[in-house]
Amino acid sequence: MEHFMSGAPVLRKPVRPAVRPAKAGAGGLAEEIRTSLRQVIDPELGYNIVDLGLVYDVSVGEDGAALVSMTTTTLGCPATSYLLEGARGCASAVTGVETVEVELTYEPSWSPEMMSDDAKAHFGIES
Asked: Locate the MIP18 family-like domain: which residues (predicted)?
């Protein structure tokens, strides 16, 4: 709740490439979705869900159907609905994505070791 009370942004401004590379394909869309998902800030930790390691996988079919597999830091996290809706909204905003399904999983369980090196440095965790 500290993040909400601090007045810091809940979502970051969208980060979009000026021009999509030719023949980006489904793999390119998956990377664009990952970039977009960095806008979703975990309200308790104040850091984006991708670098926190909460996003396990992003896949996109040739039909533009995206599947985001993610977790929360703990089972029963009070921000679960917020994080799922944020992920769904950010993935849907990517040009070329037709539908989005966000799958919540707890296998494997999240741990701080899943964070990116930048996130670990931010929280003072040694890699």
From this structure: 31-102
Q: Which domains does the chain have, with CATH numbers?
A: 2-9+24-109 (3.30.300.130)
State the pTM of this model.
0.79
DSSP 102: E
> Whole-angstrom Cα distance, residue 24 to residue 26?
7
Cα(35)–Cα(95) distance, rounded to whole angstroms?
Answer: 13
Q: What is the pLDDT of residues 44-78, one digit of tens each?
A: 999 999 999 999 999 999 999 999 999 999 999 99
* Distance in angstroms (rounded) separating the CA atoms of residues 84 and 68: 10
Token pair for 60: 């996109």
What phi and psi values does residue 67 have, to the nearest 5 degrees? -125, 120
Contacts of 46 (CB under 8 A, 6+ apart): 2, 3, 6, 8
In 3D space, the residue among 78, 71, 64, 68 whose CA is nearest the CA of residue 29 turns out to be 64
Cα–chain-centroid distance for residue 103?
Answer: 12
